[in-house]
Amino acid sequence: MDWIDELNKITEVKDGIKSEDVRTKVTVFPSTYEEVSEVVKFAVSKGLTIYTFGNNSNHIGAKVDADIGLGTKRLNNVILISEEDLYVTAQSGVDFKELAEMLKKYGLQIPFNYEGSLGGFASTNLPSIFTWFGYPKDWLLGAKIATGLGEVIKSGGTTTKFSSGYKIWKVLSGSLGYLGIYLELNVRLIPYNDYHFEEVQDYERAFKDRALGVIGIRGEGEGKKKRYYAVLRGEGEKVEVPQRFDASIVTVRGMEMEVMDDVAAETCIAYYGNGLIRCNGVDVEGLRKKGFVVIKERKCDNNCFGYYYNSLELLKNSLDPHRVFFNIFR
Q: Is 319 inside a domain boundary?
């Protein structure tokens, strides 16, 4: 493949990824935004596809078979921590847990417990046990992004009052790299709070009392008993919460616990108030036939999401008209 030698003139080319969910012919790790831009433009000129990843630890959707794996681990600088204005500016390849430890020294935090890169945190848009705080996209203030044309654009800012123009940085959140590449992110912060779990019976009451989060877990312990936990400020008992799941069930906010009762599964965790239940060992097609909206997170060959929005196609035509970014929604 002659194109590999040409690509090597732009940035160092390494062996491809060969995992259960992802396969690429080669892998590159650009260290500048300009290199990312040039790789994208090169892929467009050669009719190649790109799969973007951070730590490649939270793959969601269809199995990937792309030409170029573009890793962001060398884009790993924390640019600014603003204690006064409560935001952090960091590159997308920064490890989220390492960033959390750094922010903790300043008495600050991003109230999520994600394991992966900062870009993955934004791109997957997964909720955390701190359900009071919503989804990652609610905490994104702005970003620098590489489009499917190889353009590097700035969208948003460093305050929550930004209102002009299109909120492209939010549109990309949850799109799993399908619409563009996060290069740099501005993320809102709050003062640091340690937290602990407290088992509760009345989860609605706990949420109304402003617990940081309320989750339901089914499948742990003897008899796979269902338990509800409030996540509260301060030190105390921690609970092992699963991080990887086979499928997600989207439901009406506030109905997560009831829906979890109707789902046959090995393990489930319900994020109360966030409209999401994540499970292992579910009959995805069976649930869909019953009217559930189910996303296959892993081990998926096709129809992983079970839905497709026309607006997503319009965004794809605008941001990535040459379809250079791998179609993870197939």
A: no
